[in-house]
Amino acid sequence: MKKRISILSILLLSFLMISSSFAATTNTTLEIAENNICEINLSDYGKLEKKIVASNLEKKEVTLELKVTNTSKLEEGEIPAEVFLVIDNSYSMTEEISSGVTRADALLESAQTLAENLLTLNKNIQIGVVSFSTSADNEGTLEDAKLRSSLSNNLATVKDAISKIKVDVTGARTNIEAGLTIASENFSNNQDTNKYIILLTDGVPNTAVGGPTLTYSGEVTTKTKAKLQEINQNGINIMSVMTGVDSEAKPIPEKTYKQLAEDIFGTPEKPTAGLFFYISDDSLEKTIEETIYSEIAKVIEYKIEKLIITDYFPQEIIDNYNFEYVSKSNIGEITSTVDPTTNSITWTIEVLNEGETASVQYKLTLKENYNQQIIDKIIPTNTKLEANYTIKDESVNSSSTISPKLVVKTNAIDNTIANTDIPKAGNNSDPLFIAITTLFVLLGFAIVYRSKTKLN
User: Which CATH number is associated with domain 28-72+303-411?
Assistant: First the structure.
């Protein structure tokens, strides 16, 4: 009797195992539990974010992106600046360039328009005015230049100073060095203010401070060029506009006016200091009122510098997911693999300029042999996202623990309801039908065998 029960028990257990194996199977799926976007503001100048940008849940993988953008833009009208207009008042400026209009008329009118546009644009701009030529009694000294107006943001004051140059007595020659020197000595000591000198002239200098006079080369060239370089090295932005200079006439046998000018100012493509505009009289208005204006009025770019982004992963991500880059960073350098000591990747960007965006993408794929303990557990894709950077010479640290989150699910799929027609005679190929039939055949043989044993 015990043997019979034992055989029946084994057969019943076998039946249950076969039935359960065909009745249900286990399916593992990956789901996005929380599709959070991690965002970090980089002061007022940029934004860093991490988010899921693609997923293939059948393959149990998600693609995440780190993206950082410099959004800085200082509005026009906020740029602090000091500007000196250094204006030629030598005799050649009285030359008529069109009907009834002298070079001085055109230049001074454009200078007034430039001043008006700048002061209207920017409440933090101050403008000063200096004229230069040569003095009657002390030629070859700083008296060849005159401070017409110190720095001011009063438009009437500035325009009046410019207009007085027009009616003033002109000097015989051109001492550019004196004009540059007087202007450079009248800036403030404020290191946070942008400083500009706009030199407006129609001639090559033929005298300098300390002499000699009436010469177009040698010491005059050396002194004037050195003054341009000195001003530039002191952090003053210099823009030199030379108009109406004959490119063919030779004041000295060896060189033309243009060649002499290039000895001092360089060329527009390769200037000695700052910017150099060698123009004709008909380009005067456009150069001063548009080109020079745009150089001073342009928006300042705030650079995000020494940017270090660190993405920290939880241990459960490290243990159960494969990490792989999908796209390389378009700016900067990023570690090739996850650092096992910190469970992180680090992205370094030396400079991110205004309007620039940098990004990198990586993929997390669930491993085949993952730890079963993470089933149904919501896991963040990062424990912390951190950014260290410098803006306006200030070091800043920002971070966030907000994270997209994943979860592994297992689902039992019921196969007891056939997906095909019920097997008919001659077509009994369904696995469950075969298993049950085999089981009952075996059961029949066991009962018969037991009966014969009992009879014997």
Answer: 2.60.40.2110
Cα 150 to Cα 128: distance, rounded to the nearest angstrom? 5
CB-CB contact of 1 with 454 (8 Å): no
**Domain residue spans of the chain:** 28-72+303-411, 81-297, 418-455
Per residue in 41-97, pLDDT (tens digit) is 998 889 999 999 999 999 999 999 999 999 876 555 567 899 999 999 999 999 999
Are 239 and 250 in contact by the 8 Å Cβ rule? The answer is: no
pLDDT in tens, 265-313: 999 999 999 999 999 999 999 999 999 998 887 655 678 999 999 999 9
Residue-level pLDDT at 426: 45
Q: Where are the beta strands (DSSP E) in 321-449?
A: 321-327, 333-334, 344-352, 357-366, 379-380, 384-391, 394-400, 405-414
Q: How far apart, in whole angstroms, are the C-alpha atoms of residue 234 and residue 220?
A: 21
3-state secondary structure 172-238: CCCCHHHHHHHHHCCCCCCCCCEEEEEEEECCCCCECCCCCECCCCCHHHHHHHHHHHHHHHCCCEE
Quote the CATH superfamily of domain 81-297. Answer: von Willebrand factor, type A domain (3.40.50.410)
pTM: predicted TM-score of the whole model, two decimal places: 0.55
Q: Percentage of the chain surpassing pLDDT 90?
A: 66
**Number of neighbours of residue 113 by Cβ within 10 angstroms:** 16
